[in-house]
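Propose amino acids for all 112 sites.
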């Protein structure tokens, strides 16, 4: 039986590529961020929806999106909300916003 791992006393179980450690990066170099989903800018008009921020966060979470940024146009009485959402299926989220009583003013794909 000619098995070099057995003779050298090494590990007999083959390792998968994912189990092996990657080579360290050079000092001060960060790996690029991994964002598998595209980024969208969404503007929503608030039409008397109570607790709008909580409703928006729940809708994005339920549709497997990531809410990266949320802002109103006025400090206390916002009439529009500006969002940045990462999602594979943005139209499901837009449909859910409209079903919850929001008016979707604009959806713009801003990149990955």
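Proposal:
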């Amino acid at each position: 039986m000619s098995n070099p791992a057995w003779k050298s006393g090494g590990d007999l179980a083959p390792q998968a590529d994912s189990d092996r450690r990657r080579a360290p990066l050079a000092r001060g170099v960060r790996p690029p961020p991994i964002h598998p989903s595209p980024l969208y800018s969404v503007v929503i008009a608030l039409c008397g929806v109570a607790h709008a921020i909580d409703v928006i966060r729940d809708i994005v979470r339920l549709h497997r999106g990531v809410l990266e940024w949320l802002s109103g146009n006025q400090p206390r009485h916002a009439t529009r909300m500006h969002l940045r959402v990462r999602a594979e299926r943005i139209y499901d989220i837009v449909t859910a916003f409209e079903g919850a009583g929001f008016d979707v003013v604009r959806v713009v794909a801003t990149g990955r």
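The mean pLDDT is 78. The first strand starts at residue 39 and ends at 45.
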